[in-house]
Design goal:
heterodimer, B: Alpha-Beta Plaits, 12 strands, elongated
């Protein structure tokens, strides 16, 4: 037994009841019956309403959220403090809009590289100081690590070099890293890899690849955790 | 003469006895007496705890009779905040700023946690402890990181008290904190309506209305709530002075507290302290109602799951894998 309007067994019984009351024209207009029918109609309404509420709560939060596509201007959030670190406008798009990344060049101690990488002669005694003896490359497959000019431009040391020979600015190193780590770059563009700087609202500023990873040894080193936990209660 | 005096006394007694007295008048007198008595009791209790100036006692007296935060007008909120700031100055000689920033419209906070990326460094935990002025004596922490065996997704099987070099090969790390459920069981369990869900989705506690019964702690299926066993001892130089009434302000002893998504930060557009501290970018935070937000990207493009999804609490905290 099911009701065409609500597909609810108990409600259907009430529906049927009301229909039978309505379909008896020769019945005496007894006040008792009148009240009963009103009550049953009210009951039906209550049951119907309960039914719809139950259906609504069955829809998951995730589905509800995914259904919301109204644009939100995150600049409408009050009291957002702009990021104070030095940033540059990224040469990529995020969800159809622009975003900024943390600048890198000012953090490189010996930039500009061309101040040393000239054709001028160098004394042997300066060698230790001037060569990059502190750089240990741990990037790439074991035993087949990358070399300097795999990323650095062989002729113009102020730039990096992409696989197809184009110059890549140090501030836009994601263009270089993304050639191999394209999955990470895709996630980084969307926001699933890396993170924003300080704010969730306001203009989107994200960390650059080299802000977190040492490009010469990108994997995080093993270390002790910052703290420890005690048993709960 | 003496008989005259006797007569006068007699008439006074008769006057008192014959004066019309009603039940209402009796109750009025009794209630005044009770109020005076309880006031004296409260005052004696307060002064017994520690010697305090008259100004501080007055502030504490006024604080004692304030309303639930949800019933306060903005004016009353400002008043109580000013009182709390002055009390902090009186008691700890601290200059704190306590805010009452309201939720922003069209904002619903959500959180995602990348179990592939987390390496168990627990920087988030220290940042949280620092930001939220958590009790250092009992080592209270809102966040707990579990070291998990591969294939397991239930943190109760993991190790929540590891202390060795991380990450360990073939293990993964899973962070647990308050999930800010849309259908939160803790709210239903509270007998004094001291905890509720704000319009931007943050489940908060009014520390002054909490009676410390811990029903909510029992009701929470995720062990997201913490009980304040002590007075909240924080070294003075480590206290975060930018506070929120519902967030990291000084909690009285014996109250429930929990992660508030750093309400004092997020209502001003900042990221929670744990997200900002995470060295691996495993934590994603944002507005669920913004289709361009990072959290929505994660929900759309990644494999996500929530803990104990089948119990219908609808947490706003998703785990995802790369």
């Amino acid at each position: 037994m099911s009701c065409p309007c609500c597909a609810n067994d108990s409600a259907a019984r009430v529906c049927a009841q009301t229909i039978t009351f309505d379909q008896q024209p020769h019945m005496k207009t007894n006040s008792k019956f009148f009240i009963l029918s009103i009550i049953s109609v009210l009951l039906m309404f209550v049951l119907l309403r309960d039914g719809t509420v139950a259906v609504a709560s069955e829809k998951s939060l995730l589905e509800e959220i995914k259904g919301i596509n109204e644009p939100f201007d995150s600049r409408s959030v009050k009291q957002v403090r702009p990021v104070t670190q030095k940033t540059v406008l990224a040469k990529e798009e995020y969800q159809g809009g622009t975003f900024r990344v943390l600048a890198r060049k000012h953090a490189i101690e010996r930039y500009k590289c061309s101040s040393c990488h000239l054709d001028k002669p160098v004394l042997v005694t300066q060698g230790l100081e001037l060569t990059h003896g502190n750089v240990i490359i741990n990037h790439g497959r074991k035993g087949d690590e990358l070399g300097c000019i795999d990323c650095h431009h062989p002729d113009d040391r102020n730039y990096l070099e992409g696989k197809k020979g184009r110059k890549v600015d140090f501030d836009h190193s994601y263009q270089l890293c993304g050639q191999c780590h394209f999955r990470q770059k895709r996630d980084w563009l969307g926001g699933a890899h890396g993170k924003r700087v300080s704010n969730w609202a306001g203009d989107r500023v994200v960390y650059n690849c080299a802000s977190c990873h040492d490009p010469h040894s990108p994997r995080f080193e093993k270390r002790f955790p910052a703290t420890y936990s005690v048993p709960l209660n | 003469m003496s008989s005259q005096k006797k007569d006068e006394a007699k008439t006074i007694i008769e006057d008192v006895l014959e004066k019309p007295s009603s039940r209402r008048m009796f109750l009025k007198g009794a209630s005044i007496a009770a109020a005076a008595g309880s006031a004296a009791l409260a005052a004696s209790y307060m002064s017994a705890a520690d010697p305090a100036s008259a100004g501080e006692l007055k502030l504490r007296w006024q604080e004692y009779f304030k309303k639930n935060y949800r019933l306060m007008s903005q004016e009353e909120k400002d008043e109580t905040v000013t009182r709390l700031e002055r009390l902090a100055k009186f008691q700890d000689n601290m200059d704190v700023q306590i805010g009452t920033e309201p939720p922003t419209e069209k904002v619903l906070f959500g959180y995602a946690f990348n179990i592939t990326r987390c390496e168990g460094f627990m920087e988030c935990v220290t940042a949280c402890v620092k930001e939220n002025n958590l009790d250092r004596k009992t080592n209270t922490q809102y966040i707990r990181i579990f070291e998990m065996e591969p294939g397991q997704l239930d943190p109760s099987t993991g190790d929540g008290q590891y202390y060795h070099k991380v990450p360990v090969d073939d293990k993964f790390y899973m962070g647990v904190q308050c999930f800010h459920c849309e259908n939160a069981p803790c709210i239903k369990a509270c007998p004094t309506k001291a905890t509720w869900k704000e319009p931007d989705g943050i489940v908060v506690v009014d520390y002054n209305w909490c009676i410390g019964c811990r029903y909510c702690q029992a009701a929470c299926p995720y062990y997201g709530r913490r009980f304040n066993w002590g007075k909240g001892e924080v070294p003075k130089e480590e206290i975060t002075t930018k506070q929120h009434y519902l967030g990291n302000r000084k909690r009285p002893m014996g109250k429930m507290e929990k992660c508030t998504f750093c309400i004092q930060r997020t209502r001003k557009g900042k990221l929670p302290a744990c997200v900002e501290a995470c060295p691996t970018g495993a934590r994603v935070f944002g507005n669920l109602l913004d289709p361009d937000s990072e959290i929505r990207y994660v929900l759309k493009h990644k494999k996500v799951f929530r803990m104990k999804e089948e119990i219908g609490t609808q947490p706003k905290f998703w785990y995802f894998i790369d």
